């Protein structure tokens, strides 16, 4: 069977770095081009070209032309959040299979417009998430087994222990924006938006419900870069669902030294008959000794938070060695892409579709309103 | 769970947080079995001590059976206190995030379940 052609929108220093690596790894797909809009910043353009060169494919500066190519079957869309509405809708209108960056959009209202375009064009689609990680699958199997009885609460923490923490010593309640509009910075990003999507998505999926009431807080707890850019490095949200489950989700970026591995990644499922915990780093080996210990090198000027694979590699960020989890974390990205390709080839519906991701965006948007106004917010 | 054990954990967390190793305490996630006398009193007292005041905002979710409480302080700190359906004798789970580090207290969980997915 002929390989499926993949068009990558966006380039280095976006999540496309890892998405493209996943598609390049799968024997059923091949990357055929990298593309983006005309008129983007020279920095973004050169980073896109760098990804095209890495994969030995052309760079196309026209989305319409790129998505209509005959050799494109799948579009992997990682446009900047600020341009995501326009680009994602253009991709959906092409009718090609769509692999979407997370979160779906900068707000729930934009996510709805993207979903409308996807639904209208009947596009098989999936947003990147953690639902295919071993620990999330184990939590889901637990819920479906019924061994915990009726599920009453799901607690999920996904925090990334990356970047030089401990640089913000200011106290004070963060003044949050009801509807954030700027998300893309070099030194930082909105971490509740970008990482909170994982625990919220997992919580909703495991609850089996839709969100109804939301209470949230965001913070500038760890990094001066986030404070300087007025972007939160932390967020916590509690919400109820229409089937009677309470979900609490904590997301953000804590410092490199705050965890012996990649950061707390944990799901706790609470039912009427018991409680179980599913942790990305359990079961594990724990290693202690006099050998050399990895330490955080001088931050990369283009990526001080260690957000991207290319800059992590070029600045020599080492892998932490204290925890050795039996579940290989390096497979998380490629597993998600492999399952998406399975769905494309079999016609099966993916789990984290744009329709499901819309509920995640609704929680994130409501959470910003809650944090900005210090109130509990109802979702329609 | 014996209340004096819960109080001992709280006291040790307070001491560790004040040692300076984790910078300024910012956030606490505390999960304990339901049915403990006076619910979250010990956890909330720990938060108040670490954050230096009482919270300005408290939102509660769930039922009498399983409650989850979100707390926010005027100084920016926050906490989520949650109940679980674990055996009442189980230890709590705590994640205390500071500006420059973190403290974790893991009660005995069932993380081993993940193994089924890892080795399949």
Mean pLDDT of chain B: 88
Low-pLDDT regions of chain A: none
Derived from helix and strand composition plus strand pairing, the structural class of chain A reads alpha/beta
CATH evolutionary superfamily of the largest domain in chain A: Dihydrodipicolinate Reductase, domain 2
Taken as a percent bin, the fraction of beta residues of chain B is 25-35%
* Major sheet characteristics of chain B: 6 strands, mixed
- Low-pLDDT runs of chain B: none
Radius of gyration of chain A: 20 Å
Strand content of chain A: 15-25%
Oligomer: heterodimer
Largest beta sheet: strand ordering of chain A: 12-11-7-10-9-8-15
Helix % of chain B is 25-40%
Using the coordinates above, name the CATH class of the largest domain in chain A: Alpha Beta
Structural class of chain B: alpha+beta
| Order of strands, widest sheet of chain B | 2-3-4-1-5-6
Question: CATH architecture of chain B, please?
Answer: 2-Layer Sandwich
Tally of domains of chain B: 1
Number of DSSP-assigned strands of chain A: 15
Could you walk me through the main structural features you see in this protein, from its secondary elements to its overall organization?
The complex is a heterodimer of chains A (380) and B (120). Chain A has 2 domains: 4-123, NAD(P)-binding Rossmann-like Domain (Rossmann fold, 3-Layer(aba) Sandwich); 135-328 and 362-378, Dihydrodipicolinate Reductase, domain 2. With 380 residues, chain A is an alpha/beta fold. In chain A, strand 2 (29-35), helix 2 (42-55) and strand 3 (59-60) form a beta-alpha-beta unit. In chain A, helix 4 runs parallel beside helix 5 (108-120), helix 5 packs antiparallel against helix 11 (354-373) and helix 7 crosses helix 11. Chain A contains 11 helices and 15 strands. Chain A is globular and about 55 Å long. By secondary structure, chain B is α+β, with helices and mostly antiparallel strands. In chain B, strand 2 and strand 3 form a beta hairpin. Chain B has 3 helices and 6 strands, in the order H-E-H-E-E-E-E-E-H. In chain B, strands 2-3-4-1-5-6 form a 6-stranded mixed sheet, covered by helices on one side. Chain B has one domain (3-118): Dihydrodipicolinate Reductase, domain 2 (2-Layer Sandwich). At the A-B interface, helix 6, strand 7, strand 8, strand 9 and strand 10 of A face strand 1, strand 2, strand 3, strand 4 and strand 5 of B.
């Amino acid at each position: 069977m002929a390989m499926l052609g993949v068009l990558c929108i966006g380039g280095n220093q976006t999540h496309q770095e890892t998405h493209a690596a996943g598609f390049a790894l799968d024997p059923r797909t091949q990357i055929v081009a990298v593309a983006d809009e005309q008129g983007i910043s020279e920095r973004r353009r050169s980073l896109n070209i760098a990804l095209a060169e890495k994969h030995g494919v052309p760079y196309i500066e026209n989305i319409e032309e790129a998505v209509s190519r005959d050799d494109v079957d799948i579009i992997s869309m990682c446009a900047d959040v600020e341009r995501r509405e326009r680009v994602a809708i253009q991709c959906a209108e092409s009718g090609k299979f769509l692999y979407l960056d997370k979160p779906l959009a900068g707000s729930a209202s934009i996510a709805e417009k993207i979903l409308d375009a996807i639904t209208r064009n009947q596009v098989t689609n999936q947003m990147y998430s953690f639902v295919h990680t071993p620990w999330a699958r184990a939590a889901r199997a637990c819920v479906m087994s019924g061994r915990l009885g009726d599920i009453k609460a799901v607690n999920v923490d996904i925090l990334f222990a990356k970047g030089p923490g401990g640089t913000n010593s200011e106290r004070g309640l963060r003044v949050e924006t009801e509807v954030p509009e700027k998300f893309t910075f070099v030194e930082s990003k909105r971490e509740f938006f970008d990482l909170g999507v994982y625990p919220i998505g997992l919580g909703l999926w495991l609850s089996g419900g839709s969100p109804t009431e939301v209470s949230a807080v965001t913070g500038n707890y760890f990094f001066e870069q986030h404070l300087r850019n007025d972007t939160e490095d932390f967020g916590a949200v509690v919400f109820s669902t229409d089937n009677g489950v309470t979900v609490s989700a904590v997301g953000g970026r804590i410092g490199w030294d705050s965890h012996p591995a990649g950061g707390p990644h944990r799901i706790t499922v609470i039912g009427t008959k018991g409680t179980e915990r599913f942790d990305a780093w359990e079961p594990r080996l724990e290693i202690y000794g006099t050998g050399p210990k990895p330490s955080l090198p001088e931050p990369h000027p283009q990526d001080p938070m260690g957000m991207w694979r290319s800059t992590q590699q070029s600045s020599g960020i080492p892998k932490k060695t204290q925890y050795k989890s039996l579940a290989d974390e390096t497979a998380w990205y490629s597993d998600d892409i492999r399952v998406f390709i399975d769905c494309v080839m079999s016609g099966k519906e993916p789990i984290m579709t744009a329709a499901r991701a819309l509920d995640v965006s609704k929680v994130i948007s409501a959470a910003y309103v809650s944090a900005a106004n210090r109130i509990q917010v109802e979702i329609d | 769970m014996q209340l004096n054990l819960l109080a001992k954990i709280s006291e040790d967390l307070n001491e560790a947080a004040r040692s300076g190793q984790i910078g300024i305490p910012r956030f606490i996630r505390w999960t304990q079995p339901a049915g403990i006398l006076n619910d979250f009193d010990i956890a909330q007292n720990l938060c108040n001590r670490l954050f230096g005041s009482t919270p300005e905002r408290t939102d509660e979710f769930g039922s009498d059976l399983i409650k989850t409480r979100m707390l926010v302080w005027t100084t920016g700190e926050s906490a989520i206190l949650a109940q679980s359906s674990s055996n009442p004798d189980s230890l709590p789970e705590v994640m205390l995030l500071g500006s420059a580090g973190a403290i974790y207290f893991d009660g005995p969980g069932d993380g081993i379940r993940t193994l089924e997915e890892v080795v399949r």
